[in-house]
UniProtKB/TrEMBL annotation, chain B:
<comment type="similarity">
    <text>Belongs to the binding-protein-dependent transport system permease family.</text>
</comment>
<keyword id="KW-0472">Membrane</keyword>
<keyword id="KW-1003">Cell membrane</keyword>
<protein>
    <submittedName>
        <fullName>Sugar ABC transporter permease</fullName>
    </submittedName>
</protein>
<keyword id="KW-0813">Transport</keyword>
<dbReference type="InterPro" id="IPR051393">
    <property type="entry name" value="ABC_transporter_permease"/>
</dbReference>
<keyword id="KW-1133">Transmembrane helix</keyword>
<feature type="transmembrane region" description="Helical">
    <location>
        <begin position="262"/>
        <end position="281"/>
    </location>
</feature>
<feature type="transmembrane region" description="Helical">
    <location>
        <begin position="419"/>
        <end position="444"/>
    </location>
</feature>
<feature type="transmembrane region" description="Helical">
    <location>
        <begin position="226"/>
        <end position="250"/>
    </location>
</feature>
<feature type="transmembrane region" description="Helical">
    <location>
        <begin position="308"/>
        <end position="330"/>
    </location>
</feature>
<keyword id="KW-0812">Transmembrane</keyword>
<dbReference type="GO" id="GO:0055085">
    <property type="term" value="P:transmembrane transport"/>
</dbReference>
<feature type="transmembrane region" description="Helical">
    <location>
        <begin position="366"/>
        <end position="383"/>
    </location>
</feature>
<dbReference type="InterPro" id="IPR035906">
    <property type="entry name" value="MetI-like_sf"/>
</dbReference>
<feature type="domain" description="ABC transmembrane type-1">
    <location>
        <begin position="223"/>
        <end position="440"/>
    </location>
</feature>
<dbReference type="GO" id="GO:0005886">
    <property type="term" value="C:plasma membrane"/>
</dbReference>
Length: 448, 457
């Protein structure tokens, strides 16, 4: 018995001595959601940072070895399911790359650690990140993640189709301005694409090509009709029945006019990309990053020659032309060991350096995360990023960080599906959303 | 055989007027059954019991599964403020302070913080109070002996801080104690209310069932499920299965085996592959739309392009899998019909149709009932083919109960996994399934099927 204790003590002692002298060896795992071929730098940036950190350690005289293992999910539902369930099983990756809106529920459930405990936000490069992006990574007064990218969502217009129905060069060029000021509304857009169809420029039912699946994009239309997602004062979610009715009515009217089919939602992404890149739609809405996909994968040759881009137009006088940014954030899993989280957090900070992040921004056509990044020549030379930064980015806002937002979001999209396919009228659908959300969230939501 | 020669039967007969003799329980039998019982418990009773428990909770992504801490957040204070918590109390709870004192230094030493660093803290800042932790961290970073890693410095700083805001406490007592120490002026009743509300884990509730009972979506889902199960079952699993069995019955043996095997293909093809093949078959540029285009019919994505074709696709692709099940069962049952009856009917001049109608169908009652019962239950709970093909679309027009339960609990775009609500939906399926089983067993006259034979051998 005594011998056992002694042996154990000796082993522990030797172990700790060995640990002091031996190399530090880490395997850092990164899981990234919504990540396709053009956005691999979400993971590769961490690999680059690891490389740099090992070199720094070597110069300092430390023996540090880091292996970064990455896994990318092209979709969101699979990724969020995987991250959540892996966390519950205490088997999550060290770093998760997800939408900032996940911070609410995941922090509440204790699935993630606040990154502000692991890094200094007032040192380079984190101190150069735009404050509004840091704001999207903040919940309950704590900063939980480091913004990984930003973007703007865009209404795209086919220039050849506009020309074919007699728009002058001036009219096409001033469109962005007219949309921004609210002069050119969503209903003006419907009339325009209807004309394109009537004149045979665009195939019937192809005038308007909205996003084919759920996404933050649809909140833009809620805002176009005067909706507000949350109250800036109290942080409570706001269900604006009038705005919901307005946006549902808009899509129902689009179906009614025959510029989009009532079964458009659920179309395959590839089909949508092909149509967008080939100029088969009169207008369509997507994100800044789609341009990279159309050029790299779908054969769009002359983007600036063929496509005009604007904010999402206002729907009514109450609403505004707008665009939503949906920053992804690097998050620290709560199931890692403390040491792994320390390394992971420092890797995230290093990967946020302007030149490293610019690789992701340019390759995937996402917007940069800091002013410094726009000065990186590689980034500055990209015409699209500069254009989007000046025309769209200043008008963007993000969806709220609120652990109940998912409930509202799911209900909003179900209402959209119901009114789009004609299963409910816009009024019924909007009322159903209000009832569902009120029933689930009670006093934590404001009805307007 | 004489009953005198058989003491067991004899004994049984004598005992019957009193009560039927129970078969002795064999220990060997129990041992042999044990693995099955274990598996049954692990993979059936336990999941059903857990589903039953989860159904009465608000378990979701934000509550986490099977745990919960006590955390007071600014959001919680705001919510409590709406419910009457006074501003003074809220400010007291949100208070945080940093004091550099002997107790803090002792805590830090015990936690293993570097001695030289602590010595320098003691020398420079002993006795100081900070309003906000950020100021203390800033000062610490200026020290020569400050640790290189932000995490090390911040964890050391946290040991001098007193606050409850955003701290996770494992037990309600720990939070209550900290609250009492930090803000003694808060009344015990208010404190208890704060602690109770700060629990992040799941709570028991019947809200899920109330929501299911009152939301309009339920009616549509039930309607869709009825349509899906009813149409697939009647048209394919029973209808097509029976038709094929009868047709193959009249075919020469070689051809009949070949066709039987072919009809098994949908069942033996892996479900993902089967779904992909249907996509090739029905999508734009796929076989059917190209064919339709050639003959001048409307050509589009039949799987998702219209509500009617989406339903037709969904029912057909599920039906082809189910038809093979009916086919096998019905073929077996058909072979049990004495051929003499058919020969006799042919002598009497019966046509094929008359044979089917008067001889075959009446003897197929039980197989048909069995297939109906079994396939109803299996269709009710199946969603994987639908998920992989129409995915409930276009819109949510082809969504059924099981698919919606799966999406609610485990797979949706916003990542808001409502395990509790999903479990409630699953529980409804379990209850409906059990009720239907009982009804079917009565319809079957199952007791007759497994009852004692009426003749003694």
């Amino acid at each position: 018995m005594t011998l056992h204790v002694k042996t154990a003590a000796l082993a522990a002692l030797l172990g700790s001595v060995a640990l002091g002298a031996a190399a530090e060896d880490y395997t850092i795992t990164v899981w990234s959601g919504g990540t396709g071929d053009t956005s691999t730098y979400r993971i590769d940036a961490i690999k680059l940072a690891a490389e740099q950190m090992m070199r720094q350690a070597e110069i300092r005289g430390d023996d540090l070895s880091i292996t970064v293992e990455g896994q990318a999910w092209s979709g969101w539902d699979d990724f969020k399911q995987a991250f959540t369930l892996a966390s519950e099983a205490e088997n999550a990756p060290d770093i998760g790359v997800s939408g900032h809106e996940d911070i609410g529920p995941w922090s509440e459930a204790g699935l993630i650690r606040p990154i502000e405990d692991y890094v200094y936000f007032d040192t380079w490069p984190l101190n150069t990140i735009y404050p509004n992006l840091i704001e999207t990574a903040t919940f309950n007064d704590r900063v939980w993640g480091v913004p990984q990218d930003a973007e703007a969502r865009v209404m795209f217009w086919s220039i050849p189709a506009l020309e074919a129905i007699g728009w002058s060069q001036d009219e096409i060029e001033s469109l962005a301005q007219r949309v921004e000021s609210g002069d050119f509304t969503l209903y003006d857009m419907l009339d325009t694409v209807k004309t394109m169809q009537d004149e045979g420029v665009i195939e019937p039912g192809m005038g308007f090509g909205p996003r084919v699946s759920n996404g933050p994009d649809y909140w833009q239309f809620y805002q176009s009709f005067g909706g507000e997602m949350s109250d800036p004062e109290t942080g409570k979610l706001v269900v604006d029945t009038g705005a919901l009715e307005g946006m549902y009515g808009f899509f129902a009217d689009a179906v009614e006019k025959g510029v989009v089919s009532n079964t458009h939602l659920g179309t395959e992404w590839d089909v949508w990309h092909q149509n967008a890149a080939a100029g088969n739609y009169g207008t369509w809405h997507g994100g800044t990053w789609h341009k990279a996909q159309w050029q790299n994968q779908f054969g769009l040759a002359d983007f600036f020659g063929d496509v005009q881009y604007t904010l999402i137009p206002a729907g009514t006088e109450d609403g505004r032309a707008n665009s939503i940014t949906h920053p992804l954030v690097y998050l620290l899993s709560a199931t890692s060991t403390e040491d792994e989280s320390v390394i992971a957090a420092e890797l995230i900070a290093m990967a946020s350096a302007p030149d490293i992040n610019a690789l992701h921004a340019v390759k995937s056509a996402h917007l940069g995360i800091s002013k410094d990044e726009t000065r990186v020549p590689f980034y500055a030379a990209d015409e699209w990023l500069s254009a989007a930064s000046s025309r769209l980015a200043p008008h963007t806002n993000a969806i709220p960080n609120n652990s109940d937002f998912g409930t509202f979001w799911t209900a909003m999209y179900q209402g959209l599906e119901a009114s789009w396919t004609g299963a409910s009228t816009p009024e019924e659908a909007a009322q159903t959303v209000a009832d569902t959300v009120k029933q689930s969230l009670g006093d934590d939501v404001v009805l307007r | 055989m004489s009953s005198f020669a058989d003491p067991i039967v004899d004994g049984a007969r004598r005992a019957r007027p009193v009560r039927p003799r129970r078969a002795p329980v064999s220990r060997l039998g129990l041992i042999l059954m044990a693995p099955a019982l274990l598996l049954l418990t692990l993979f059936f009773f336990l999941p059903v019991a857990l589903t039953g428990v989860f159904a009465f909770t608000d378990l979701s992504t934000s509550t986490g599964i099977g745990r919960g801490d006590y955390v007071v957040t600014p959001t919680l204070l705001r919510q409590l403020g709406d419910k009457g918590l006074s501003d003074t109390d809220a400010e007291a709870v949100a208070r945080s302070s940093v004091t550099v004192d002997a107790a803090g230094l002792a805590r830090a030493r015990a936690a293993g913080v570097d001695d030289r660093f602590l010595d320098e803290i003691e020398r420079r800042f002993m006795g100081r109070d900070y309003e906000a932790p950020a100021g203390f961290v800033r000062d610490l970073r200026g020290l020569r002996t400050a640790p290189r890693r932000p995490r090390d410095l911040k964890s050391a700083a946290a040991l001098f801080e007193t606050s409850v805001l955003n701290q996770r406490f494992a037990t309600s007592q720990a939070l209550a104690a900290q609250l009492e120490a930090m803000a003694p002026e808060i009344a015990p009743a208010v404190r208890a209310r704060i602690v109770e509300a700060s629990f992040t884990g799941a709570r028991f509730t019947t809200e899920n069932f109330r929501t299911l009972a009152t939301q309009k979506e339920t009616a549509r889902l039930v309607g869709n499920t009825f349509l899906y199960v009813g149409a697939t079952l009647s048209l394919f699993n029973v209808g097509l299965g029976l038709f094929l069995a009868v047709v193959l019955f009249y075919m020469p043996k070689g051809a009949s085996s070949l066709f039987s095997t072919l009809w098994l293909l949908p069942r033996i093809t892996p479900v993902v592959l089967y779904a992909v093949m249907w996509k090739w078959f029905t999508w734009e540029g796929g076989f059917l739309p190209i064919l339709a285009d050639q003959v001048g019919l409307p050509s589009f994505n039949y799987m998702k392009g219209s509500v009617v074709t989406a339903w037709a696709t969904m029912i057909t692709l599920n039906g082809f899998i189910g038809a093979s099940f009916g086919l096998i069962l019905f073929s077996g049952a058909l072979r049990a019909i004495p051929l003499q009856q058919l020969w006799a009917s042919e002598v009497d001049g019966a046509s094929r149709w008359q044979q089917v109608r008067r001889i075959i169908l009446p003897q197929m009652r039980w197989p048909i009932l069995f297939v109906t019962a079994y396939q109803t239950l299996s269709l009710l709970s199946s969603y994987e083919q639908i998920w992989l093909t129409t995915n409930g679309g276009p819109g949510r027009t082809t969504s059924v109960w099981a698919l919606e339960a799966f999406k609610t609990a485990l797979s949706n775009y916003t990542g808001n996994l409502e395990y509790g609500m999903g479990a409630a939906m699953a529980l409804v399926l379990v209850v409906v399934g059990l009720a239907l089983s009982l009804i079917y067993l009565r319809l079957f006259k199952f007791s007759e099927l497994v009852g004692r034979p009426k003749i003694e051998i």
